[in-house]
């Protein structure tokens, strides 16, 4: 290996073999002090170098794999001494015959060739080395004890002598050695072992030997017959003989009085079945399991301590030697020092006064020795960081540790983290009902739901609200609901006695650096949305703020909810934490908050523009206004925009929220650009509600601010929406207003678009001359402005008009020109639109095969682009061609698919056209009942838009 860093890296991976080792832990292993800014990159380089060196030695390339958040080394049980050791110990546990157990333990000890990690210099790994050495020593003691019981006292003396030299305070080793010497008729040497132990304990720890070894000393003095060597059995026996007066030779000596320190259980504990099952599986697992440390992580008020107390009490019978409870008070003004916590633990374990060592490491060593070979459960409540916890971890396999923390403790080796969220709605209702009373809740069920919604299903908030109601029996639930539904008053109301949601959140804030507190406060201003992680950078005006976001996530103040389809993690603030964040932001200067909002909104605007550029061309896309744009790194943008539709899908709610945020902060230019930016996406996916909502929000702001350009763009977008919905009067008003504003602002392209759309309204209403005039006017502007995309669209529109006027040759000329222009622009979507329109001409000229060829080609393009609306128009045309051939079997499925799509997107006119045509086909086939039902369905749809005359004539297409 190339130097000590790779050795440390390999050691850290092997310690947690076949488990993910967090990158943070590898950084801590490599740099015992403060890590450099490039630490993560250096870890990645070290892993790469380690892989190369191992591969050069014949190791497979998959030996070390990259995992989310870290790395993992993969080894079989026979490839690592640590795994062989654990496997042999596990086999020893399964044997019933002591002789077989001793053989298995010897096989386990043979895996050792000295102390663990002796050539590795790392303070972080010292704890792991101590834990492994403790495990080896415990195994050695267990093996020697069994062999002593088997009558092998002569064989074990040498090993016991060496062991007592390495562990001079270990009374169990001393007991074994005293008994072995006594059975070899070396009574004097046995008494000397006791005397050396007594002096060592008195001189160095200030304590006397414990009563069991004092009793053994007395029995040796009196030559107690029960100390005689057992008669070796002729074969293995299931159970070794026991004597009630014999010294302890098993895995542990019982304490005089087991520790029982768990807090009272919560009588109204509800739910948490999954988390309880996970904890129970850990606690009830086999004793040699090295990962019997669980960290329950969650935000303030989520119920971590309640869960751990409940789980610990359920498992108390599994730990007969006791349960130790220590409150580390990490979120208090004075977090508890681990040295003081160790002193408290030692006193609970009957070590007092001067017997408690002065140094932290000595206390930790004595603590681990006392817990060795015992089955105890240790609960560490409210831990703040790994350094506070590590000295309190027992080294014994029979022990387990439950930790609660608001922060991820990734530096704890082998610990299992269980993420605790708020209660489910059913659990929240059960908790609330259990405290308030079933009759009272059922009497005002809707009010109860509203209260729980205000509490966000947070257990602490529910308990406070319930306690208020319990203490005020004359209150109706409506009274409390009215008091907490106002978000500005909610935190003040959610307080009773010492319980307060605000205070609970503030305890977490004390542990955060200033930039994390500022980021949290600004995040609260963005609203109740699931946000991408990049927003923190613009909020803090930093290129990269991942470290700040990680701090908030680790502190359980921001929750990682999912990863979206683009691979971006999504984050959310609990509503009550967000309310706290808004309060924290209140004292900040308004200009600072406004600037932060502008930076985030301008980044969203830039991303929306980048996404639109990667979508099929849309003519409703407006030219950029004067709003600022802020770019993320190109590599990040390319990764997010690899699938632009997926990005828009993920950001749908946020983009509408961004419009509202811009309106709320008086940023009218940003508001209209953010509303208009996703129009191409809305158009292709027929998201009419989002489209209208954003446009109307921004239009109000633009008109108040006198923003003529913004208003013209938004009115044009609303006009197109009216057309899609067959609301032609509304479309005319909106588009005429848009034309007027474009003329006032000198926006020629915008004017051409709005005029062309008015031409569509005229065409659909049957005013063909007016439609031609408007299209010609718009086309002249497009040509003058050099807008080739708009020219291609309007050339196709002119072809449609000539076709409807029965000027087939002129229509063909326009279609051919539009098709050439669209192909020259490499605009696949526009090509498909022209082909769909062109099919009408082919059908009129008696060439249905060519018409269908154009339509199937167009349909393939629309389906590939997920453009359901244009696909529906194409299917309608397919149905018309087949209907013209009286091919009912092929026409009906296409028309039914089209009708379903039109219905989904609110296009009643074209849906009615489908059912009318299906009814006509039914009538021609003599299926008159079915024909009547389909025609009645079409008539009802036309009646809703006041166009019953359309049953008498073919419907002009309203498609673009």
Dominant shape: elongated
Q: What separation lies between the terminal Cα atoms?
A: 67 Å
Strand order of the largest sheet: 4-6-7-8-5-9
Kindly provide the radius of gyration, computed on alpha-carbon positions and rounded to a whole number of angstroms: 39 Å
Low-confidence stretches: 233-256, 948-960
- The average pLDDT is 85
State the helicity in percent bands: 55-70%
Q: Proportion of β residues?
A: 5-15%
Helix count?
Answer: 44
Secondary-structure content class: mainly alpha
Number of strands: 14
Sheet of most strands: 6 strands, parallel
Note the topology.
Elements (H helix, E strand, L loop, with lengths): L3 H12 L5 E2 H8 L8 H18 L7 E4 L2 E4 L7 H14 L3 H12 L13 H27 L3 H14 L4 H13 L3 H19 L5 H11 L37 E2 L12 H11 L9 E6 L5 H11 L7 E6 L10 H11 L11 H12 L5 E7 L2 H4 L10 E6 L10 E5 L4 H12 L1 H6 L1 H11 L3 H13 L5 H8 L2 H7 L1 E2 L2 E2 H9 L4 H11 L6 E2 L3 H5 L5 H9 L4 E5 L5 E4 L2 H11 L4 H24 L20 H7 L3 H21 L3 H9 L2 H7 L2 H18 L2 H17 L3 H18 L2 H17 L3 H18 L2 H17 L3 H17 L3 H17 L3 H17 L3 H17 L3 H17 L3 H17 L3 H17 L16
Parallel strand pairs: 4-6, 5-8, 5-9, 6-7, 7-8
Antiparallel strand pairs: 1-3, 2-3, 10-11, 12-14, 13-14
Helix pairs in contact: 1-2, 1-3, 4-5, 5-6, 6-7, 6-8, 7-8, 8-9, 8-10, 9-10, 13-14, 16-19, 18-20, 23-25, 23-26, 27-29, 29-30, 29-32, 30-32, 30-33, 32-33, 33-34, 33-35, 34-35, 35-36, 35-37, 36-37, 37-38, 37-39, 38-39, 39-40, 39-41, 40-41, 41-42, 41-43, 42-43, 43-44
Note down, in words, how this protein is organized.
The structure is a single chain. The chain is mainly α and 960 residues long. A 6-stranded parallel beta sheet has the order 4-6-7-8-5-9, sandwiched between helices. A 3-stranded antiparallel beta sheet has the order 1-3-2. The longest helix is centred in the first third of the chain and has 27 residues, at 123-149. The chain is elongated and about 125 Å long.
């Amino acid at each position: 290996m190339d130097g000590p860093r790779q050795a440390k890296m390999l050691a850290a991976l092997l310690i947690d073999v076949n488990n993910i080792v967090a990158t943070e832990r590898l950084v801590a292993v490599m740099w015992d002090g403060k890590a450099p800014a490039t630490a993560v990159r250096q870890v990645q380089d070290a892993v790469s170098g380690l892989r190369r060196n191992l591969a050069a030695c014949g190791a497979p390339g998959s030996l070390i794999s990259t995992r989310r958040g870290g790395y993992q080394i993969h080894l079989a049980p026979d490839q690592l001494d640590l795994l062989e050791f654990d496997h042999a110990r596990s086999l020893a546990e399964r044997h019933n015959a002591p002789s077989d157990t001793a053989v298995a333990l010897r096989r386990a000890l043979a895996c050792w060739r000295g102390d663990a990690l002796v050539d590795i210099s790392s303070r972080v790994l010292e704890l792991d080395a101590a834990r492994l050495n403790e495990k080896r020593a415990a195994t050695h003691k267990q093996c020697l004890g069994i062999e002593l019981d088997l009558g092998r006292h002569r064989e074990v003396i040498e090993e016991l002598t060496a062991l007592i030299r390495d562990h001079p305070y270990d009374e169990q080793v001393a007991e074994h050695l005293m008994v072995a010497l006594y059975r070899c008729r070396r009574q004097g040497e046995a008494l000397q072992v006791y005397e050396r132990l007594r002096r060592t304990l008195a001189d160095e720890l200030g304590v006397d030997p414990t009563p069991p070894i004092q009793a053994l000393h007395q029995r040796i003095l009196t030559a107690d017959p029960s100390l005689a060597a057992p008669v070796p059995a002729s074969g293995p026996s299931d159970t070794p003989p026991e004597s009630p007066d014999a010294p302890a030779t098993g895995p542990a000596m019982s304490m005089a009085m087991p520790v029982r320190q768990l807090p009272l259980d919560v009588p109204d504990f509800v739910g948490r079945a999954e988390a309880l099952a996970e904890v129970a599986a850990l606690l009830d697992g086999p004793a040699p399991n090295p990962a019997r440390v669980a960290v329950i992580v969650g935000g303030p008020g989520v119920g971590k301590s309640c869960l751990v107390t409940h789980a610990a009490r359920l498992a108390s019978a599994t730990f007969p030697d006791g349960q130790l409870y220590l409150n580390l008070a990490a979120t208090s003004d004075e977090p508890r020092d681990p040295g003081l916590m160790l002193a408290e633990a030692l006193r609970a374990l009957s070590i007092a006064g001067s017997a408690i060592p002065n140094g932290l490491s000595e206390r930790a060593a004595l603590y681990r020795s006392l817990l060795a070979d015992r089955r105890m459960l240790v609960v560490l409540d409210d831990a703040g960081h790994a350094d506070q916890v590590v000295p309190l971890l027992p080294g014994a396999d029979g022990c387990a540790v439950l930790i609660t923390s608001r922060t991820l403790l990734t530096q704890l080796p082998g610990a299992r983290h269980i993420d605790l969220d708020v209660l489910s709605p059913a659990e929240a209702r059960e908790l609330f009902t259990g405290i308030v009373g079933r009759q009272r809740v059922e009497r005002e069920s809707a009010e109860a739901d509203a209260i729980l919604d205000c509490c966000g299903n947070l257990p602490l908030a529910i308990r406070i609200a319930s306690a208020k109601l319990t203490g005020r029996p004359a209150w109706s639930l409506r009274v409390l609901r009215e008091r907490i539904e106002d978000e500005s008053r909610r935190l003040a109301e959610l307080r009773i006695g010492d319980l307060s949601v605000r205070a609970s959140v503030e305890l977490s804030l004390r542990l955060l650096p200033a930039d994390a507190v500022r980021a949290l406060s600004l995040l609260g201003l963005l609203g109740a949305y699931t946000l991408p992680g990049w927003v923190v950078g613009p909020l803090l005006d930093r290129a990269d703020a991942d470290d700040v976001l990680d701090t908030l996530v680790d502190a359980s103040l921001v929750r990682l909810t999912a990863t979206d389809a683009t691979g971006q993690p999504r984050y959310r603030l609990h509503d009550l934490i967000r309310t706290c964040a808004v309060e924290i932001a209140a004292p900040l200067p308004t200009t600072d908050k406004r600037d932060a909002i502008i930076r985030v909104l301008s980044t969203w605007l830039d991303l929306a523009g980048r996404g639109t550029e990667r979508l099929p061309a849309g003519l409703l896309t407006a030219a950029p206004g004067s709003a600022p744009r802020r770019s993320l790194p190109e590599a990040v943008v390319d990764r997010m925009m690899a699938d632009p539709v997926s990005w828009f899908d993920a950001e749908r709610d946020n983009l509408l929220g961004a419009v509202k945020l811009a309106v709320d902060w008086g940023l009218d230019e940003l508001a209209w650009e953010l509303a208009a930016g996703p129009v191409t996406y809305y158009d292709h996916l027929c998201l009419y509600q989002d489209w209208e909502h954003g446009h109307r929000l921004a239009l109000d702001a633009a008109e108040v601010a006198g923003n003529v350009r913004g208003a013209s763009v938004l009115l044009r977008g609303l006009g197109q929406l009216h057309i899609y919905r067959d609301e032609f009067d509304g479309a005319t008003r909106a588009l005429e207003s848009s034309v007027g504003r474009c003329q006032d602002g000198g926006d020629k392209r915008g004017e051409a678009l709005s005029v062309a759309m008015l031409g569509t309204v005229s065409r659909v209403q049957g005013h063909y001359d007016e439609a031609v005039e408007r299209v010609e006017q718009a086309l002249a502007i497009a040509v003058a402005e050099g807008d080739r995309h708009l020219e291609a669209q309007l050339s196709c529109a002119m072809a449609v008009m000539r076709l409807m006027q029965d000027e087939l040759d002129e229509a063909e000329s326009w279609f051919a020109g539009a098709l050439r222009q669209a192909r020259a622009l490499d605009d696949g979507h526009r090509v498909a639109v022209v082909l769909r329109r062109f099919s009408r001409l082919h059908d009129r000229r008696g060439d249905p095969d060519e018409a269908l060829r154009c339509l199937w080609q167009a349909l393939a393009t629309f389906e590939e682009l997920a453009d359901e609306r244009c696909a529906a128009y194409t299917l309608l045309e397919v149905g018309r061609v087949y209907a013209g051939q009286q091919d009912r079997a092929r026409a009906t499925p296409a028309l039914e698919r089209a009708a379903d799509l039109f219905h989904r997107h609110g296009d009643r006119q074209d849906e009615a056209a489908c059912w009318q045509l299906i009814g006509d086909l039914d009538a021609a086939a003599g299926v008159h009942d079915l024909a009547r039902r389909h025609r009645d369905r079409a008539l009802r749809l036309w009646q809703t838009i006041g166009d019953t005359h359309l049953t008498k004539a073919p419907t002009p297409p309203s498609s673009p």
